[in-house]
Specification:
The protein has 474 residues and is α+β, with helices and mostly antiparallel strands. The protein has 3 domains: 99 residues, 3-Layer(aba) Sandwich (Rossmann fold), CATH 3.40.50; 70 residues, 2-Layer Sandwich (Dna Ligase, domain 1), CATH 3.30.1490.20; 244 residues, D-amino Acid Aminotransferase, Chain A, domain 1 (2-Layer Sandwich), CATH 3.30.470. 35% of the residues lie in helices and 24% in strands. The protein has 16 helices and 22 strands. Helix 7 crosses helix 8 and helix 12 runs antiparallel to helix 13. It is globular and about 60 Å long. The N and C termini lie far apart (48 Å).
């Protein structure tokens, strides 16, 4: 195993800080990159070295050549992509290899194979992994979409081939829905991913969103670290994740885990990845996609397994053979992660930016915060709205829920609006506590739908504070 001396993190926010922590524990120096808007960001302050990339607040994080060339010029051994930005762009590892830099992640080939939703499902069918019934390839005309939908049977989903994060998805219950949504899905896919291709698949009503964490080394060893239930979503965006699932039996966990490993083998995978399934109320599960990167919600798996997933990523890239066997993986207790987003739930989750006037994070046994803001930090409007992740652990599900409720009540972020009060309502919902939830949990509860239209008396104060801050440039 050749130890890295210096790693560049091609990302920002909480995941950049998370990677820096893992590197420090391995005795590896770190390099941050940043935009002008991120000059005061936490990851810039925490890294051993930091370099401005630009121009603009976003383009620098998306420039493969500039990032890799910088890494070569400053003597970096490897680059960690984090999640988002370039993390699933096959050109990134390809150019890293060309320039002699190690990419902490899968190969360009694996990313390409699993990045196309249509081709990945064809590969999964060959590998014997269950796949939702749908079109064999991309659908380019409304007439073909109607024909396929009628053959499969309504309801169906129109999905972007190159998609992710819920973008480009439309649920159709009849021919009229296809006619109304087909062009809209293609347009959104083109705008979001630069690829208008969509496909059709059977819609599973009230499913659970279950995903399995994979670790694979360079010597053919592949294990899974159990599952996460990501069913608490809003408009296909995950809001709360738990591990392990409350509804999986040991037999079902074993079968789904074996399918996840088979999926990873089918694309010759290495490093960390996630196999995402959709599961119906009868326990039938189907492959949705593979995320060829670290997941936002990886902390819940770390909490219940004791495995440092980011640390394992780095060591696998250094050439270390996995020293964890499948039989060594034991899921102990439960974990809940809340994605703390800078959004105003009372205004249909509109983005909220400005100066953080007060910040106090919860603590105590079993509480972990992965964050990217601090008091007096000015939150820019250019990036994803997630500013922190609060993850709690408990020996039992009841203990974990109570701890999550207590920790959310302790969490103080002022100056902007966040999703904390909305998530507290979910955590304290009796059905959530009993494990009676699926991907429709939020939309089926009138009190949660009504929450966004209730007037918040602090809105005017926040607006005045933001105006003053803008006037004085603070």
């Amino acid at each position: 195993m050749k130890k890295f001396n210096k790693v560049l993190i091609a990302n920002r926010g909480e995941i950049a800080s998370r990677i820096i922590r893992a590197c420090k524990e391995l005795g590896i120096k770190t390099v941050a990159i940043y935009s002008e808007a991120d000059s005061q960001a936490l990851h810039v302050k925490k890294a051993d070295e930091a370099y401005l990339v630009g121009p603009g607040p976003i383009s620098g994080y998306l420039n493969v050549n500039r990032i890799v060339d910088l890494a070569v010029n400053i003597g970096v051994d490897a680059i960690h992509p984090g999640y988002g930005f370039l993390s699933e762009n096959a050109k990134f590892p390809a150019y890293c290899e060309k320039r002699g830099i190690v990419f902490i992640g899968p190969s360009a080939k694996s990313i390409s194979m699993m990045g196309d939703k249509i081709e990945s499902k064809k590969l999964m069918r060959k590998a014997g992994v269950p796949v939702v019934e749908g079109s064999e390839g991309g659908v380019i005309s409304e007439e073909d979409a109607l024909s396929i939908a009628r053959f499969i049977g309504y309801p169906v989903m129109i999905k972007a081939s190159a998609g992710g994060g819920g973008k480009g998805i439309r649920i159709c219950f009849n021919d009229e829905d296809i006619k109304k949504n087909f062009s809209l899905s293609r347009s959104e896919a083109e705008k979001s991913f630069g690829n208008p291709e969509v496909f059709i698949e059977k819609y599973i009503d009230k499913p659970h969103h279950i995903e399995f964490q994979i670790l694979a080394d360079n010597y053919g060893n592949i294990i899974h670290l159990g599952e996460r239930d990501c069913s608490i979503q809003r408009k296909h965006q995950k809001l709360i994740e738990i591990a392990p699932s409350l509804i999986l039996t040991e037999e079902l966990r074993k079968r789904m885990g074996e399918s996840a490993i088979a999926a990873a083998k089918a694309c010759d995978y290495r490093n960390a990845g996630t196999i995402e399934y959709i599961m119906d109320k009868n326990g039938n599960y189907y492959f949705m996609e593979m995320n060829t990167r670290i997941q936002v919600e990886h902390p819940v798996t770390e909490m219940v397994t004791g495995v440092d997933i980011v640390g394992e990523q780095i060591q696998i890239a250094m050439g270390k053979e996995l020293d964890i066997k499948q039989e060594d993986v034991v899921l102990r207790g439960y974990a809940i992660e809340c994605r703390i987003n800078a959004e105003n739930p009372r205004k249909d989750f509109a983005p909220s930016t400005g100066k953080i006037t007060a910040y106090y994070s919860p603590g105590g046994i079993g509480v972990r915060i992965d964050g990217s803001v601090y008091k007096d930090y000015v939150l820019p409007p250019f990036y994803d709205s997630m500013i922190a992740k609060m993850t709690v652990y408990g020996r039992t599900w009841d203990e974990t829920v109570r701890r999550a409720s207590r920790a959310l009540q302790e969490f103080v972020i002022k100056g902007i609006r966040t999703t904390i009060p909305f998530q507290l309502k979910i955590i304290e919902d009796e059905d959530f506590i009993k494990g009676n939830f699926d991907t429709h949990f939020i939309e089926e509860r009138q009190y949660l739908r009504d929450y966004k239209i209730q007037r918040d008396p602090s809105d005017r104060i926040i607006a005045i504070s933001a105006a003053i801050a803008a006037y004085y440039g603070i």
